[in-house]
Structure formats: structure tokens, C-alpha cells
Design goal:
The structure is a homodimer. Chain A is an all-alpha fold and about 220 residues long. Chain A has a domain of about 130 residues: Tetracycline Repressor, domain 2 (Orthogonal Bundle). The first copy, chain A, is built from 9 helices and no strands. In chain A, helix 2 crosses helix 3 and helix 4 packs across helix 5. The longest helix of chain A has 26 residues. Chain A is globular and about 55 Å long. Chain A starts with about 40 loop residues before the first helix and ends with a helix. Chain B binds a DNA duplex (30 and 30 nucleotides) through helix 2 and helix 3.
DNA sequence: TCCATTTTGGCATCGAGTGCCATTAGTGTG
DNA sequence: CACACTAATGGCACTCGATGCCAAAATGGA
């Protein structure tokens, strides 16, 4: 689903982030004891271990050891073990909002949403492998599959708000909610099909999302 | 989503169940030590505590004490704490399958599915309050929301298989999967709207599911 | 150098979940 | 009726995720 802004396991920032939300250490000034690690470092350590021992087989203790910090510190960077594979997903919702906003006004709402979703899932070639690996982990590990609902809810909210804005409804009304849920349904179907493909290239995510949407249209037409 | 066959907190069987799956104690003959409790008794005890202390505030120890059995025994009836509010959902999937199968052959697939889903969610008046309470708990408790994905996946599978059968595709193909995901999307939107209503009566679940489907059609039409 | 500031990480604790196994309470048989 | 047979029970120990608490560490600035 997501296009991560930061937290990429391979390329991301090694510096602590300056955000004012969640358990992320906020660095308002340069005073005080300096941070000992970063989201990127923790994710790298974690993915290294996940690859060899699996998600369930990797303890938080082990991740802490691999990252060279205390277990307690890991929990200050990530609320839970399940949050680690998601990286810093929260940041990307702003990006998603922007993508939706920049779609042409004269498009039908569902088309604007669809295009926004497609763009949201367009990645440069070099970002594809780690993205794929991340999503594979999330979508095939039961604990993570379950946990991801909470993330999806935030993502759906972005859509519901956009639809509400464009149709004059409230975000909690039925149609905006349906739009959010159905967009997620399309995306998840597409991701599953994408991951089922043997070659990491084949049709890309954007194409598959288009197909999934076309599939829905044909399904609903009879 | 579900129409539970057994495990109803108010009306269900007080006898151990004869099923051959999961951690449910299988009673093949009448020999051996008799069971000390039942799914129904455990659920009743659990819901009593959930009502006063909330889900997170209720420990498995407490549920065991309330039910008059050992904690270890509770875990033989339910794989996890999260499974308790779901009752014996697995049983209802057979019922759902039957409902889909009995829809007229000449209906368009999406119509047959929709009708099956609607029927699946039609309850006699006296079953409504406990059902509503159960779903309220599941859909408003984060842990349970997350956990429910695993149940939904089984439910979606039933739809995907039916669509595959009727269209000559395989269950894992894109369109059947999309059908499953989208049906779930509709159902969840409907449930949320249903729970948001102050009165337990107002429009019933079947009506709201119809509206959600109509909402999707209008959304996709522009 | 001392202070304010901020992160760190150790420790204790809780609760979910699991493996192990002796105990219990029935049924069927001689 | 006593004795084996059978199957559920429940206690115990243990692992692991998660959280609260707090002293220690490490920096910039006065």
C-alpha cells in the first residue's frame, strides 16, 4: 500500500527524526545525551534477523543486541515489535494526502481516488526490492497481517476525508467510508497478486492495481 | 459479519461440542473424565467481566476464576484471549457456504453474493442485542479489530471459492479475490454504520448492507 | 567546573501463551 | 464391587512482549 518516505531499510536517514508524535524521540535542541541509534539502524538490524530466524523467531532482546542498544530503547523507537516492519508509515500519509489533492478537480471522485492510489504505489526501480520484501513479510506473517489493520484504518481515513470533501458529505458517512474500505480492498487484492508473481518485475504494482479496479467493474457489471 | 450457529452468549449449548478441529475438546465417546466447562460458559463469564472491566482490563486468570476452571483449561477451549469474543465462528462458515449455494443460478454472480451476504446477516429479533454487543466489542477494541482479520480471511475465502466456481476461475485469481475483499469492505462499512446508530433497532443490518452496496454503485458511477 | 537537559538502559513486574505431567473423574469389564 | 482404561483437568515453570520507574550517562552552555 504505502510509499514510505523515510525508514527505508537500505537507504534511509541515520539521524534521529524530528517529529512531534508517537514514541519517536523528539530532538528539539541539540542538548542532552545524544541518541544511540535510529529507526533505520533498528530496522536494518531487525530485518537482518527476520531473514534468518523469521519474525516470530526473533526476540526483541535479539534485535536490541543486534542494534547494539538496550531492549528498553527499542521500545522507545517502536511501540511494538509489530510496528518495526512498518517503518515510519505515519509520515507517508501526508504524502498520500498530497497525491490525492493534486489530482485534477474535474475527474470523477472515484477516478481521482484510484489515480491517487496508483501513484501512491509507484516506486522507482531501486526501491522495489526492499519494498517488496517488506510487504511480503507483512502480508504473510499472521501477527503482522492482523496488526496492519490499525495502519490501514489511518490510510482509509485519508480517503474517506478526501471523498467527503469532494462530495460534501462527512467523513463518517456511509459513502466515504465505503470508498475507503473498497480502495483498501482493491489495493490488498493487488498486493497479493503482485507478491504471488515469481519475478520481482513482471507487471508492476500500478498495472495490477488498474487490473484489480477493472476486475471490480466487470464483477459488478455481471 | 457472522451469524453464529453456536456459542451465543445468551442462548447457547451448555454441553461440550463434538467437533474435530482446533483446540476444542473432542468428545468421541462418553469415556474419560467429563468436561468441566463449555464454550458457552466461558463466553458468558468472559463477557460478564468485559462489561465491567473492559477487554484489556480482564485477565485470562480472571476469566478462568469466573468460569470456575483453571487458566490452562480456558486455553484448551480458545486458542487466545482474542478468540473468545468471536465464539465459534468457524462453524458459521459452513452455513454461509450453504446460503451462497442456495441463491438462484441465474442471478449475476455479484448479486448472488450480495444476497448471500445479506441473508448471512439477518437475525431474529431476540438474537440482535447480543450480536450487536459482540460486534461492538470486536469493532471498537483495537486488539480485537486487528485479530479479526484472520477470521475475515476465512470468510473471504468462502466468497472467493464461490465466485471462482461460478465464473470458472481459480479462487486465487484476481477477480474472486477482489470479490471477497470488496464484499468484506461493504460488510464492514455497514457494520460500522449500524453500530453508530443510537437505537438498536432503526434500520437493520440487511438494509444497511443494501445501502452500502448501493453507495458503492453510485460511487463508482461518478 | 557545575548545571540543566535529554536519552539511555537496567530492573522489576505483569500478562499472554505453551509444554509438561500428575491428578481426577468418569466408563466399561470381569 | 474393584480394577483397568481413558480423557479432561489444572498446576507449575518458563518464554516473551510490553510498561513503569529511576539512576546513570552524555552533551551544551553558563
Amino acid at each position: 500500500m504505502p510509499k514510505w518516505k523515510g525508514g527505508d531499510v537500505l537507504t534511509s536517514d541515520a539521524m534521529p527524526d524530528v517529529v512531534a508524535e508517537g514514541p519517536t524521540p523528539t530532538r528539539s535542541s541539540a542538548r542532552g545525551r545524544p541518541v544511540a541509534t535510529s529507526h533505520a539502524a533498528i530496522e536494518q538490524a531487525a530485518f537482518r534477523l527476520f531473514a534468518t530466524h523469521g519474525f516470530a523467531g526473533t526476540t526483541m532482546e535479539a534485535i536490541a543486541r543486534e542494534a547494539g542498544v538496550g531492549k528498553r530503547t527499542i521500545f522507545r523507537y517502536y511501540q511494538s515489535k509489530n510496528d518495526i516492519p512498518w517503518g515510519r508509515f505515519d509520515r507517508t500519509l501526508d504524502h498520500f494526502r498530497a497525491l490525492l489533492a493534486e489530482q485534477a478537480d474535474d475527474l470523477p471522485v472515484h477516478t481521482a481516488i484510484h489515480r491517487g492510489v496508483v501513484e501512491f504505489n509507484r516506486f522507482p526501480a531501486d526501491a522495489r526490492p526492499p519494498h517488496r520484501e517488506r510487504m511480503r513479510l507483512i502480508l504473510t506473517t499472521p501477527e503482522l497481517q492482523a496488526h496492519s489493520v490499525l495502519r490501514y484504518a489511518e490510510w482509509r481515513r485519508v480517503i474517506a476525508e478526501h471523498v467527503a470533501l469532494r462530495t460534501g458529505a462527512r467523513p463518517d458517512d456511509l459513502v466515504p467510508q465505503v470508498a475507503g474500505h473498497v480502495s483498501l480492498a482493491i489495493s490488498l487484492s493487488a498486493y497479493e497478486a503482485w507478491l504471488a508473481e515469481p519475478d520481482a518485475d513482471a507487471p508492476g504494482l500500478p498495472e495490477i492495481i488498474d487490473r484489480a479496479m477493472a476486475g471490480l467493474q466487470s464483477y459488478l457489471s455481471g
